[in-house]
Amino acid sequence: MKVSFPHMGCVTGYKRLMEKLGHEVIMPQRPSQRTMELGVKYSPEFICFPFKVMMGTYIECAEAGAEMIVTSGGCGPCRAGMYPDVHQKVLEELGYSTKVVVFDNMFKDFKAFYHKVLEVTNGKNIADILQIAVFTYKLIKRMDTLEKKMKIQRAYEIHSGDYNRAWNKIVKMFEKCETAHDIKAAYDKANAMFDAIPRKKVEEKDRIRVGIVGEIYVIMERTVNKNVEEILNGLGVEVENVQYISDWVEHNIVPQWLPFPKSHRICKKSDEVAPLNCGGHDKENMGWVFDFAERGFDGVVHLMPFACLPELVNLGKFPTISERLNLPVLSLSLDEQMGEAHVKTRLEAFTDLCRSKHMAKQRPIENHEQGIGHGEEPREKANVPGRAEMTGARI
């Protein structure tokens, strides 16, 4: 069967999974301007941005001959829960026979989950399915680990584009993996490639770190968020994103009562300000903001689709939380009208604020090292940040 999927996160893992299950894979193209125009044209007017982009992707996949599209769903008040039904209806109205198969949390309805597994596993027996699942998880986990490393080290690359070129080669290496041994070999070689890239030497006290939270699709698909992570890296800022495919799998496969993965514990950090989950990842995202503050991060970028209900709830709380934690939070509302130049301008201003606050935190340490005590004036008058810089106000 010709199978496709949304372009989101580690698509290499999806590709290898479907190939090992015996399907012919129709690779989705990275969302382009045409993708978004198709999605906007055939989607309900007030539906959220991820729906529109995915709608455009599904139409392009159907045009390429995809017979089945495999994706994940949502639950609660978040509109992602109705995506599959509406996507399917639009495809049918456009004359495509492509079927949309959606996997939800296995603990919500295990029987339905199991029947969908049988639907896409192409007659494989349980032992083979488990073996393929383990192989795919290992591949995705290794690639996600490398991507996390890249988003830290890329902030200090001397020659712009070195890490992106290396990453393109790494993706091709993992696409050829057939066994767990191949994955380990590709992972070791990829780490060596990253470590060989020339980087600026930066002292620990000079590192600027920013966390990325928000709706899962817009923070994982860089063409949708206008390359937020790459722009921040280009400004000399380390980036930590809270959502990767391997993390999503762990969060949904491991029972909630267990203390791992970290996302289970993160949700509890937000109990005081977000006692209820309003859908999507709103409660989890709020917990990550508290976690970033505890780990000494310099700021948080909050990405949300325009009019996203769960993230609108967070948006209303962030000014108070930002001031309370003394942590700058930049919220970006994304839709098809958002341009990369606008995003870059706002990120540049936000980075200046984060760097100013970071330097202000270092001054007491520097003054102590210079022997400046209480009641003493510094030898040279320092530049004192303005009131806006010294607060955690959201910009």
Summarize the structure.
The chain is of the alpha/beta class.
Task: Identify low-pLDDT runs.
Answer: 374-395
Apparent shape:
globular
What is the makeup of the main sheet?
4 strands, parallel
Give me the secondary-structure category: alpha/beta
Biggest sheet, spatial arrangement of strands: 2-1-3-4
Mean pLDDT: 87
How are the secondary structure elements laid out?
Elements: E1 2-4, H1 11-20, E2 24-25, H2 33-42, H3 49-63, E3 68-72, H4 83-93, E4 99-103, H5 110-120, H6 126-153, H7 162-175, H8 180-195, E5 209-214, H9 216-220, H10 228-234, E6 238-241, H11 245-253, H12 262-269, H13 282-294, E7 299-305, H14 309-325, E8 329-334, H15 340-369, H16 387-390
Parallel strand pairs: 1-2, 1-3, 3-4, 5-6, 5-7, 7-8
Helix pairs in contact: 1-6, 2-3, 3-4, 6-7, 6-8, 6-11, 7-8, 12-13, 13-14
Could you characterize the architecture of this molecule?
53% of the residues lie in helices and 10% in strands. The C terminus is likely disordered. 38% of the residues are buried. By secondary structure, it is an alpha/beta fold. It has 16 helices and 8 strands. Strand 1, helix 1 and strand 2 form a beta-alpha-beta unit.
Properties at a glance:
single chain; 395 residues; alpha/beta; four-stranded parallel β-sheet; 53% helix; disordered C terminus
